[in-house]
Amino acid sequence: MEDLYTVPLSDIIKELSLESIYMPQSPEKILVSCPRVNRPGLPLAGFFDHYEAERIQLIGKMEALYLDSLTFEQREKSLDAFFATKPAAVVVTTSMEIDELILTSAEKYAVPVMRTKESTSEFMSALIAFLNLKLAPRITRHAVLVEVYGEGVLLLGDSGVGKSETAIELVKRGHRLIADDAVEIKRVSKKTLVGEAPEIIRHYVELRGVGIIDVRRLFGMGAVKQSEKIELIINLEPWVQGKMYDRLGLDEQFTDILGIDIPSLTIPVRPGRNLSIIIEIAAMNNRLKRMGYNTAEEFNNRLMESMGI
After folding, report:
1. How far, in Å, CA of 11 to CA of 23, rounded?
2. CA-CA distance, 151 to 270, in Å (whole number)?
3. For the chain, how far is it from start to end, CA to CA, in angstroms?
4. Is the full-model pTM beyond 0.85?
5. Which of 34, 72, 148, 301 has the fewest CB atoms inside 10 Å of its own CB, making it the most exposed?
6. How many Å apart are CA 236 and CA 153, to the nearest integer?
7. Quick check: 248 pLDDT over 90?
8. What is the tally of helices (H) and strands (E) in the chain?
9. Sheet order of strands, 227-229 included
10. What is the mean pLDDT of residues 155-180?
């Protein structure tokens, strides 16, 4: 069973600049748990099959016009039945005037009512994107997350293998740190993972022998970033003599995180190897693959042609 995450209604109001019309209690105490949004056309008409009251409900021009077409008694009955389901909240879009019956029913059933100046479709898109991020399934991994040439690179490996030192070297070379030691990974869509640092350790890096350093203050705001998509995973491990490591790159590896396969590499670590440069090359090569060009396959094809195969 997946963990249930919530977001306070106050965060939604702040993020999307909503006007609070009616609040039964402090919006900090009203928690939203469903990332889906609904336009209640059918429920207002009395059809509630498969209706999910835990969704935020949007009343746009179409819903308003339908309500205006009803007699006072019909409208009162329709709104009373709708608000009796106690939806998570109701948002009226396009700065429309709010029917007094809406407020009466909202107060009767203690349902928050807000208003936005945005059109219904634009507001719905922004709200769904925000809820998907805040309510996404997540895990925390012992890792380092850096942005290298626009690619989110997650560095995995045992403690002491050199993840933090490599991250600092990458920052010095102009790249950006997202998280050190603990990375909170969220699945924001069926194809996308986003990583960020827990707030208490955000922008900090631990270097053995030196201690905790504040990357933002030491290197400037341009050296840090709050979150980043994870597009490549690099496993750092101590060099094992005699172990066969991939030298061509033909065998693609993937690591499953929250049901999403992310391209991954295993890079052996030993004195003399410049990990920061290797990771830069790996990030650029991963981007090249996503753009449709695979160097290893091209080289293999040329080799086969030269051999007449």
Report:
1. 14
2. 25
3. 52
4. no
5. 72
6. 12
7. no
8. 10, 19
9. 138-142, 182-187, 193-196, 227-229
10. 93
